């Protein structure tokens, strides 16, 4: 069995001077089709299959949370970036959901599809600040699981950079 990681960080992250907010990064959610260590691919539209000899080291949400925390810390904008069960003076909350993570072999060239939805909330005011969804179609060098892992990491790094910009644009 070949086990792979989604562990790419963006080369550069938007940066801002530290404010007064503490950011809580909740555990990412995922659709059941991708909330598994099985690596998904598609040979026909509207169908999913899973590789027999290739898998993720952890579920995609488990791999994503530490990357979210490290990316938000790298912005320098928060007094702290924490995860549950942290309590205290949480100012902002970031919820994420992996909507899609599939190696799409119906496209030519094949692509890795990654979609992520994020919601930023102001905990003090008990209101949603903004919600956004990103979809990336990262070209794959070949129709192989390994090429999908490389494309997945490239797509993820790009999406994390865009997510950091989204959060910084909407926070004091």
Give your account of this protein's structure.
The protein is an alpha/beta fold and 172 residues long. The chain has a single domain (2-169), classed as ABC-type transport auxiliary lipoprotein component (Rossmann fold, 3-Layer(aba) Sandwich). It contains two helices and nine strands, in the order E-E-E-E-E-H-E-E-E-E-H. The protein has helices at residues 60-74, 145-169; strands at 2-4, 22-25, 29-30, 38-42, 49-56, 80-82, 92-104, 111-122, 127-139. Strands 1, 2, 3, 4, 5, 6, 7, 8 and 9 form a nine-stranded mixed beta sheet that branches. Strand 8 and strand 9 form a beta hairpin. The radius of gyration is 17 Å and the shape is elongated. The termini are far apart.
Shape: elongated
Whole-number count of domains: 1
Number of strands: 9
Question: Helical proportion?
Answer: 10-25%
CATH level-1 class: Alpha Beta
Question: In angstroms, what separates the terminal alpha carbons?
Answer: 47 Å
CATH topology: Rossmann fold
* Proper CATH architecture: 3-Layer(aba) Sandwich
Strand composition percent: 35-45%
